[in-house]
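Entry type: protein chain
Record version: 2
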Amino acid sequence: MWWPRREARVVQATPTSDGMLLVRETRAYRELVEVARNTTVLTRVMRGDPLRSGFAYTDALHVAVAFGPRRSMRALCIGAGGGIVPRQLAARGIAVDVVERSPEVLDLAARHFGLTPGPLVSIQLAEARSFVRDTRAEYDAAIVDVAVTNEPSPLLLAPTFWRDLRRVLRDGSAVTINVMGALDGSVIAGELARDAIARAMGTTLWLPMLADGERADVRALRNFVGVVVGRATVSDDAPSFLPRLPAAIAEVARRLRGLAEARDHLRAPGDPELGVEPAELVAHRAR
């Protein structure tokens, strides 16, 4: 998610109980935008390559699948947005169950972003908490992407959700989570979410995402991708990351080297267990 761009053409506008959803296009991107108390771009894809995201954080969410087996891998995606992550995973042969609570989001994702059920994609219109509580399925990876700007997400703060999510994950599975926050901890919603996740899931490594060409600002609102790992090493037969991911993480590391003093839990050179060195990660433990 990120702040909206100007000079975009609106393709479709759909009212919701919370506000409005827009599908719009710029010269380079197609975007799914939520207009509510805040305006947030939920999904950005390249118009010329709909399997390529316009956000580095979307690529970073794929770290979750690096810890699962290549064969017969099954992933759970909480929060559909425009469906870029589940479509990317399915294109790599990974079975995906998508859980989304908004019928309007699913309608726009199908009409304009190509998220439809298929041999590898199952779509569930459901509340995430009830789904993970009731499902009998087991997963090799989970991706949770429900954060919106600087407001706290009730789902991310719910201990029962994380407890039930752990239950449906096979031993050694990994979870990636998108949370909005700032490097200096000034976004209270982000700090609450990260602390709640750490309390429920244990130590979580947080990768702060920087936009292309950005001069790092410790107070700027940005995506953080959290990683909870269940095994020590990346699987030998795990799917490779998207081609741009290692370069994106290396660039994040380069930009963060001068910011280590901003928070005492910024650390370098990264965690070798993630297999993405030389990333610099934020390790956040429950206080």
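Comment: The first helix runs from residue 56 to 60.
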